[in-house]
Amino acid sequence: MLSRKGIIPEEYVLTRLAEDPAEPRYRARERRARFVSKKGNCNVAHKNIREQGRFLQDVFTTLVDLKWPHTLLIFTMSFLCSWLLFAMVWWLIAFAHGDLATDEGTSVPCVTSIHSFSSAFLFSIEVQVTIGFGGRMVTEECPLAILILIVQNIVGLMINAIMLGCIFMKTAQAHRRAETLIFSKHAVITLRHGRLCFMLRVGDLRKSMIISATIHMQVVRKTTSPEGEVVPLHQVDIPMENGMGGNSIFLVAPLIIYHVIDSNSPLYDLAPSDLHHHQDLEIIVILEGVVETTGITTQARTSYLADEILWGQRFVPIVAEEDGRYSVDYSKFGNTIKVPTPLCTARQLDEDPSLLDALTLASSRGPLRKRSVAVAKAKPKFSISPDSLS
After folding, report:
1. Would you tell me the crossing angle of helices 117-128 and 143-171 to the nearest 10 degrees?
2. Average pLDDT over residues 220-231
3. What is the C-alpha to C-alpha distance for residues 143 and 128, in angstroms, rounded to an integer?
4. Are 100 and 109 contacting, i.e. CB atoms less than 8 angstroms apart?
5. Handedness of CA 347, 351, 355, 356 (dihedral sign)
């Protein structure tokens, strides 16, 4: 109608009608998929597994790995099925012996007070869970009934051991302890001892320690070999420095773990302009140790993408001495401040050390200039009058 009135040209209307309104006109590039999430879960989907029977060869681990609703369902059904199975066996024994007859004769029954399947089911529950109400019992009349009694007790103990062990292992899994092992949301790259370093902060919220704690870092990125082979998840270990040597740490208070970016580092050619969400880079951090209270080995994981690495910033101190003891302020756990840092790669810094000298000179002049300006603008707090000099 608008084109008929001459308000909108007809060519424009036809062009807009030919477009699909559901299709976006501009498509932004998607962010790189994580290999390990911030909470430590591996972002890997296993598909087309043909040999499903391998999971049944390790039934206990399969039960522990199941979700809680499935585990509770199996827990309940295992007891119900065993009770029903042995209830059918007890009913068949009573039926074969003629104990289900309504008239009470002089013959001794195999199991007293069993007259229907309901009573046989109640007796099966009493036998397996050892309740023993006293109304029903096995007599010496039928040796088969004594054998079934022994078999049901053994089967009941096995079910109790397996299912209770499964429930215990699910409640005491190692990743539960890892919930209180925290990492800083962002990592930083800044100078330390004249070298560019990749830094992150790790801490433990519980008072119980992690024994023999070790930490590892890996760089995961897509690479191509000289032969043309594409490796989508190429993992490279990077060494780290923690002041104690090696990968062991003493995690009593939050620590800053850092990696010196040298010629052997996979981050040697990383520049500030590369820290965006399109960059194919992910740094995985793995903290592993033994829980002091349970003795179970636990592992906490996290990862940092390129846009989660802050260039030219440093973590603020959070440990202070108060009243003869050290206190940790976790409200500042991930806080950072900007510090003078050269905007170049570690390779360029090694090839041209004058970049570091110029940065040091500029940072040393900055506070003096600010201080001189502040002194010049400051007003005197007192004045000397000529009368006081006479």
Report:
1. 60
2. 85
3. 19
4. no
5. positive
Helices 68-97 & 143-171 angle (0-180, nearest 10):
180
Query: What's the pLDDT tens digit per position in 68-85?
Result: 899 899 999 999 999 999
What does the alpha-carbon distance between residue 177 and residue 299 come to, in Å, rounded to a whole number?
8
Place of tokens 């780290």: 240
Whether the Cβ atoms of residue 237 and residue 216 lie closer than 8 Å to each other: yes
Of 22 and 295, the one with more pLDDT: 295
Q: What angle do CA 146, 150, 154 make, to 5 degrees?
A: 165
Q: Determine which helix (DSSP H) or strand (DSSP E) holds 210, and give its type and residue range.
A: strand 210-224
Answer for the pair 332, 211: CB distance below 8 angstroms, yes or no. Answer: no
| Secondary structure class of 1 (helix, strand, coil) | coil
The overall average pLDDT reported for the chain is 80
Average pLDDT for 153-173: 88
Q: Sign of torsion, CA 353 358 361 364?
A: negative
Smallest CA-to-CA distance from 121 within 163, 75, 82 is with: 82
**pLDDT for res 91:** 93
Q: CB neighbours of 185 closer than 8 A, spacing ≥ 6?
A: 38, 308, 334
CB count within 10 Å of CB 126 equals: 16
Segment 93-111 shows an average pLDDT of: 78
> Bridge partners of 294?
none
